[in-house]
């Protein structure tokens, strides 16, 4: 098995320069204030105010849907020059996706997004509010539809050291490698440095926020008597790779970052470095979230593959907002679910084991 970068964003013919993600995360961990205020010129603010509703405080999020409707119903974004964990937490609790929007050059502004339609699938059906299905596939996640390659389903074998893959969730040592892989694949995009800092801070300080950040990683299994320690060590540093490099034991092959609000899991972004491991990433994420009590998987904007292989249905904006309000009402849910994730997956679960335990 070999790593691939063919799907990574390029600068001309070259890979993008590698971001020092370990340093970014260290800076976040050592900082008491990770907020970023982006400097905008008066004419830029005027331009934005003509097109998007401003979000300068938490209360502005409560009126975002109404203000977007007042703009003719076409827009989905608000804007703020401030990236702030408290504002992001509040947005997630209201069903508003924390996005960033390019403001020219290397500047980004916070752009909370309220989709016209949200793409959802049930992890524990039936969920009240979901439409009656037209067939057994509609509206619910079934891992078999993803057709994960058999090369990822091999069991562990200490004697032959057969290639096997493990799922880790919410290990602190995985946040830098996961973000590094994501930025390497997608470049500096909506998950910009200021937003990454907020996500990393919320991840490292879960107890301060109702929204729980989730980091999912898939790694090749490490063998040996000290396999647990080797797997831990493998996650402590960011390892770069070139096209065609062999996938070594402990190597990261897929990662996802998302968040939990109530018992709804929302996928934010992800990346992969091995053919077929993007599909694997989706499969293990869905199965893992289902195994710890998440009832709904939110996949954001509608795309064909989401309905075809993930069983997604679309919720219009107001219906989505009602669903979120109902599912975040119990303020203890997300904390319990995140605790189960760490308890179950922090030391790694074999992909084969995960699928066999949660297959439905």
Automatic annotation (TrEMBL):
Coiled coil: none
Superkingdom, natural source: Eukaryota
GO molecular function, one term: leucyl-tRNA--protein transferase activity
InterPro entries the record matches: Leu/Phe-tRNA_Trfase, Leu/Phe-tRNA_Trfase_C
GO BP terms in the entry: protein catabolic process
Annotated Gene Ontology cellular component terms: cytoplasm
PANTHER family membership: LEUCYL/PHENYLALANYL-TRNA--PROTEIN TRANSFERASE, LEUCYL_PHENYLALANYL-TRNA--PROTEIN TRANSFERASE
The protein, known as: Uncharacterized protein
Organism from which the protein derives: Trypanosoma cruzi
Lineage, highest ranks first: Eukaryota, Discoba, Euglenozoa, Kinetoplastea, Metakinetoplastina
């Amino acid at each position: 098995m070999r790593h691939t970068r063919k799907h990574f964003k390029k600068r001309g013919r070259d890979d993008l320069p590698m971001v020092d993600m370990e340093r970014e995360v260290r800076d976040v961990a050592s900082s008491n204030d990770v907020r970023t205020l982006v400097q905008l010129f008066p004419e830029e603010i005027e331009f934005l105010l003509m097109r998007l509703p401003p979000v300068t405080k938490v209360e502005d999020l409560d009126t975002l849907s109404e203000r977007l409707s007042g703009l003719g119903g076409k827009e989905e974004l608000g804007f703020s020059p401030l990236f702030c964990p408290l504002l992001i937490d509040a947005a997630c609790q209201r069903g508003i996706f924390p996005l960033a929007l390019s403001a020219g050059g290397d500047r980004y502004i916070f752009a909370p997004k309220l989709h016209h339609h949200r793409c959802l699938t049930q992890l524990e059906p039936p969920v009240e509010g979901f439409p009656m299905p037209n067939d057994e596939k509609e509206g619910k996640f079934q891992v078999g539809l993803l057709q994960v390659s058999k090369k990822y389903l091999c069991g562990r074998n200490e004697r032959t050291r057969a290639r096997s893959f493990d799922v880790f969730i919410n290990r602190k040592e995985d946040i830098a490698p996961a973000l590094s892989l994501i930025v390497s694949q997608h470049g500096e995009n909506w998950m910009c440095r200021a937003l990454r800092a907020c996500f990393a801070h919320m991840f490292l300080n879960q107890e301060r926020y109702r929204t729980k950040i989730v980091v999912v990683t898939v790694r090749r299994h490490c063998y040996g008597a000290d396999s647990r320690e080797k797997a831990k060590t493998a996650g402590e540093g960011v390892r770069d790779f070139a096209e065609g490099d062999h996938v070594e034991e402990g190597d990261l092959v897929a990662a996802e970052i998302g968040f939990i609000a109530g018992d709804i899991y929302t996928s934010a972004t992800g990346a992969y470095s091995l053919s077929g491991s993007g599909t694997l990433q989706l499969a293990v994420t869905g199965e893992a979230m289902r195994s710890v009590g998440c009832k709904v998987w939110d996949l954001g904007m509608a795309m064909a593959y989401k309905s075809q292989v993930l069983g997604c249905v679309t919720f219009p904006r107001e219906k989505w907002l009602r669903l979120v309000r109902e599912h975040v009402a119990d303020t203890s849910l997300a904390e319990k679910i995140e605790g189960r994730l760490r308890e179950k997956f922090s030391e790694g679960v074999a992909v084969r084991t995960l699928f066999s335990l949660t297959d439905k």
